[in-house]
Amino acid sequence: MGTITASLFISLDGVYQAPGGRDEDRENDFEYGGWQAPLFDEESGEAIGADLENLDALLLGRKTYDIFAAYWPNAGDGPIATKFNAVPKFVVSRTLRDPIWAGTTVLPDAASAARLREEFNQVQVIGSGALVRSLLAEDVLDRLQLWLYPVTFGQGKRLFDTGTIPASFRLVQPARSFEKGAVSLVYERAGEVETMDMPDEDVPIEPRT
User: How many domains in the chain?
Assistant: First the structure.
């Protein structure tokens, strides 16, 4: 059985919008497109490249798909372009009828992505914050990999916004930090949120759910 992993570059205030280019996504007048580049270093680049090398299918939301489909088919023969253009691609959309990126299959909803675990070893979601939230709501997302960068924006699309389902996660790999302050964090879903009072001295801890 394969896994579905969401991989996102995010800021300290949870924004994932337009990390790759200044004009990648100007929605809602976002001013900071291309914010990842000044914080990019050789070691983190190698780690990101190794992560992408392992995927054998892409799963995208409609907005991220449109950005990728307009860029990667014409991006030359570098390792990322070669990988993205070669692997099967799946986009969750209720309106897309004729995808332009070769090798694309349209899925009607997040729940239908569950079958991809049976067909592929490593399905990776990139960006696609709305889809990530839907996959979590349907209990379809297996892993959440966050590349956390030391910057805040105060605007932009946030990964976990109002309406995100309550959930607990466990760290499944040691956190890894990089030269310019980025940190890689890999989580798996760990059930419901537990609550408890902080214990007084010598009082047993009893979780409340």
Answer: 1
